[in-house]
């Protein structure tokens, strides 16, 4: 199994946990847990594979479905033990984002995609599963919250993967660097309250 396949499995597992946590906050049944976990875990990677003209990863390897399903069941029976499910969601989402950005960028690179496409695929893999999760759960998506640097963290992480590989030629080193930068930026963002500038409307001039 390749390094980036392992990272895809890690992203699926942790993103599925976040989907199930959102389901727990919405007090859904076990089917709702499985649906949100699967949508979150598989959405970003599916978009990536369709755009890269690959067989979607969970169709090529159905074990990904089992991972997402197991995460949903596990959270269904244990979410009540958490002191703050939202805080757990933020932390799990940060790790999932880091895994997914690196996996998406690495897989695009392995497919021979140009640098700009590598960065876009890293962002798509990292951001779209959570976006789908939040839209379906009728919540403001984390990636679109006012001033939230979520997508910026994904962008910086994907650029790090690209730059580290260009400098070293080592995919493993670029994966570690991209993961560390994405996770570090995301955690620092919500721990320190970092925000991006937002548009402020001004009165029209006559």
UniProtKB/TrEMBL annotation:
Membrane topology per record: Multi-pass membrane protein
Start and end residues of each Glycine transporter domain: 6-79, 90-163
Pfam (any one): Gly_transporter
Transmembrane feature ranges: 6-23, 30-51, 63-82, 89-108, 173-194
Alphabetically ordered keywords of this record: Cell membrane, Membrane, Transmembrane, Transmembrane helix
Compartment(s) where it occurs, according to its Swiss-Prot or TrEMBL record: Cell membrane
Protein name listed in UniProt: Membrane protein
Organism (species): Salipiger mucosus DSM 16094
């Amino acid at each position: 199994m390749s390094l980036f396949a392992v990272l895809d499995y890690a992203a699926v597992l942790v993103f599925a946990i976040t989907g199930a946590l959102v389901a727990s906050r919405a007090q859904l049944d076990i089917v709702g847990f499985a649906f949100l976990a699967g949508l979150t875990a598989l959405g970003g990677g599916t978009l990536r594979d369709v755009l890269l003209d690959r067989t979607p990863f969970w169709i090529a390897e159905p074990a990904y479905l089992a991972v997402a399903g197991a995460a949903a069941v596990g959270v269904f029976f244990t979410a009540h033990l958490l002191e703050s499910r939202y805080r757990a969601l933020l932390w799990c989402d940060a790790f999932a984002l880091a895994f997914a950005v690196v996996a998406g960028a690495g897989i695009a690179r392995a497919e021979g995609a140009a640098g700009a496409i590598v960065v876009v695929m890293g962002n798509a893999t990292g951001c779209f599963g959570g976006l789908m999760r939040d839209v379906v759960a009728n919540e403001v998506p984390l990636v679109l919250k006012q001033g939230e640097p979520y997508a910026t963290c994904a962008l910086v992480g994907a650029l790090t993967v690209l730059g580290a590989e260009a400098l070293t030629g080592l995919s493993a080193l670029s994966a570690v660097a991209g993961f560390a930068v994405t996770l570090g930026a995301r955690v620092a963002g919500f721990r320190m309250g970092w925000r991006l500038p937002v548009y402020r409307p001004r009165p029209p001039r006559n």
